[in-house]
Design brief:
The structure holds two protein chains of two kinds. Chain A is α/β, with parallel strands linked by helices. Helices cover 33% and strands 18% of the residues of chain A. The chains are: A alpha/beta, B alpha+beta. The structure holds S-adenosylmethionine. Chain A: Catalyzes the formation of N(7)-methylguanine at position 46 (m7G46) in tRNA.
Chain lengths: 252, 409
Amino acid sequence: MLENEANPTLSKSTGLPRKRFYRARAHSNPLSDSHFPIPISPHHVDYFLHYPQFFPSSDQTDGSKKIQFADIGCGFGGLLISLATLFPETLMIGMELRDKVTEYVKERILALRTANPGQYQNVSVVRTNSMKYIPNYFEKGQLSKMFFLFPDPHFKEKNHRRRVISRFLLDEYAYVLQVGGIIYTITDVEELGEWMKTCLQDHPMFEALTSEELEVDPVVKLLSSATEEGQKVARNGGQTFQAVYRRIAPSL
Amino acid sequence: MEDAPTELGDSNKDTEVAPALIAVHPSQDSVATAVGSDLRVFDFRQNCAVSLKDDSSEGSLHRDSIRAVRYGAHGKLLVSAGDDKLVKVWSTLSWRCITTVCSEKRVSAVAISDDGSYVCFADKFGVVWIVDLDTPDGQVVEFSPDGKYILSADRDFKIRVTVFPKNPLDGAHEIQSFCLGHTEFVSCIAFLCTPEYPQGFLVSGSGDSTVRMWDIISGSLLDTCEVGEKAGLLGSNGREAECYSAVTDLCTSSDGSLVAVAVQRQVPENFLLHPFFPCQVVPIRGGTFIPTSLQMCSSTGLLWMITGVSNLRGSEYPSLARVRVISGLKKSNSDSNEREPNVMDDNDIPGGAKLLEKLQGSLSYSEEVFLAAAEAVKTAMSNLLIKKQYSSEKREFRKRTRNDKKIKH
Ligand SMILES: C[S@@+](CC[C@H](N)C(=O)[O-])C[C@H]1O[C@@H](n2cnc3c(N)ncnc32)[C@H](O)[C@@H]1O
């Protein structure tokens, strides 16, 4: 607690980082150039740094255990925090463009690790532009789940190419997802919901989950409730639109 | 502010000079050069300059800088494309434009499938489009030698290997691999095929002054050649190469025995060399010559090179080009590895003065004009090769004016 006195960005009562110290611009342009480090290839991702408990020394990162879930545009990280305890043995990472928001999530995870020994060791976050660098982080078929929760809508037609779901980006997502892997999307913007659904529907390497499958998937319930954005929408009684699709092998 | 980075590219457009390009027919029936919006062809069969005919509805030649030109379909077609967002396919028999495809964006690279039925092009955002030439409409770098994959490179250092689709008009969605290892923009790719390995290895050149070799199926990096370093050390008598030297273009010989690489140096010496093999540096004497484009003819073994730019401000020659040819790159006989590369005299080049007059637009230029052009080529190449970066001051300014930073202090 003494430490928290010294660090005003951590809340005194909970020990967790306080969001107001990590406010950032509402929107970043994801197509602008980056000034953050990018791993040259998935082999260069520093697992030791992200998951020290799973990889006690840097030379034990032999590639036996890999990241399987990716939360794209994770924002303040609410979904990852929920998933961490639901899938304690699965490595997962959030990808976020805004540096302050990424810092916040980092602090949040570290604080949770300290407060709950042995837990939250499987979750981490990285500052990156997911529209450009997904293949630098994940190998072909590495991921089993990808999340796109309340992405920025980019309403203007000329900005549609900034959307994190597009025909072209779906090619990359299909590449990093294993066959059977699932892509989860949700939004409160009807037009964007339609857009994401159409992109997925038209793509030869994705098929919709049936309503029975959606029913039994424990993750689906988290889509609208686990993230900060989702909670805001729920508080305001907003409607949400989700599209959940499975990666399939392309037909021959 | 938000839009600045993406718009930067467009507003720079007027001042962006276009490097001259060269393409050689696989049997050296003809040679084409592109200087600015001007596409120039010399036909060796008729031994004369060609005037291209375009009776399509657009009814015009290119209206803006050409960024890509090459032969395809075993030399039956020539394709050109560029900043006017038009991809034009020319018959090399009639020299008529047989198809014009409109792209949504400016086009940076183009290729034609061996059977001549598809043209594949990449726009400046790295999106790859495929157009069926038989039914032009709809949507498109390099095909793998077996035609099963399309290779495309973008500004983010990666090379994407896409499976050529069963039904190309539905788009190419299945990614086979990414070749990851370059640390700067990939400037050129080509296949190196040998009789033992006909499916070929991919070789790529980059602004990071390396040439790398890849297995495209797995995307694994097989070899890296620091060509900048080699050219630097070998060229300037062990003096440190103080600046980075980008690879501007490369090409391979059809028997897979040679990769020719054009390297841009800050010091006025220029070289061609073969990585992965006993390295050989060929200095090009007679003025400052930074090849902007290279092509090796599979039948004659001649290496054709061009340097030049268009949109040159404040010069009496707003666009200029210089064509040079290297001979002696083919092994003299199969059991010797000896090569005697030689930069040919203008008079000895096939087609001679007549060809140079057509392709260069003029027979000769003075040395001063060339020095100016060399500067422009450097600028053009670094604009192409280097990722558009903010200057460090601008970046600092951006940081200082960011709201999220302000709160902290
Ligand atoms: C509206 S927020 C939603 C955050 C979170 N998923 C939630 O539901 O609360 C969208 C987030 O995506 C991030 N983002 C936008 N484009 C991105 C990109 N290209 N790469 C990574 N993150 C991106 C934004 O910075 C922002 O934090």
